[in-house]
Amino acid sequence: MDTEAQWRWVDRYAEQFRACELQPGETAVLLYEASSSPIIVKSARMALEMLGAAVAELRMPTPPNPGPLPIRSTGASQAIAGHRSAIAALSTADFVVDCTAEGLLHAPELGDILSGGARVLMISAEHPQNAERWPHDPAFKDKVARGVAMLEAASVMTITSAAGTNLTVELDGAFCAGSHGWCTEPGSIAHWPGGLVLAFPAANSVNGTVVLDIGDINLTFSEYIRDAITMTVVDDYVIDIAGEGHDAELMRSYLAAFDEVEAYAVSHVGWGMNTSARWESLAMWDKAALNGTELRAFAGNVVYSTGANEVAGRFCRGHFDLPMRNCTVALDGKIVVADGELDSDLT
Q: Pairing state of beta strands 334-338 and 341-342?
């Protein structure tokens, strides 16, 4: 594994920071923690300095995990831990580069940080070599915005597949969002790579069947599904996880270990739009070298997630992000993803 920042990675990071309209002399805070990837931190630091930002580094301890199991790929960093001075430093910055291991997207301190007007770019904990494959495309912003607008205008999202998925998501009261991978407005956050369009449904809005087929992904475990799993969803909650293989048993055991009923409920549902992100990339890296954001974002995939959902008033630690291939997504009957392929309106 590389330990020195390569110029091609620094240059790619700098390109993304320019897309966030970082200007020479702006105050930039590089946020990371004890368990952050050193190569990501190095690459980000060099890119910020190259662009002439006034850089300050904020390194936080990584708090101990109280168990019972490791937690991965949540987007809810616990590194800030309510620290008043850390929040003050971040909220008064012009630009924050978030290199924490899990990211600030769902962190409890995010609202206070954004309220100060900071622009926050969350760099997913993927090895910088991956960034070479995610070229900046200015047109991607409008494509993602179209996807979000279509989701916001709809009343019902249905997801089906030949494998047996048949899910209905009522969108009344849902919070819909998407990220194209950069941020320019004060008080905004983006995650990089971007491309996921999603809804956080209101309570009692999701019913049906979700089938994880062979080759679909469990991002908490950073593994491809090897044996099909069928989940029955009633009023948001997974009430049954059926499957004879190793994967189903792991899911049942992991969720049960947290002893949180909310861990079985829907967190968010959406689809990926990033044509530069690849389904195969999980096979190329050790688990410690990726967070899985690319796997959420690859074009045409459907992400079904369990766990915390602020819109529905549910909070918990147990969490699964489950990208699925070959699904069809319809909004009020209009197909936007057909058997894993984006509709032409979104490409």
A: antiparallel
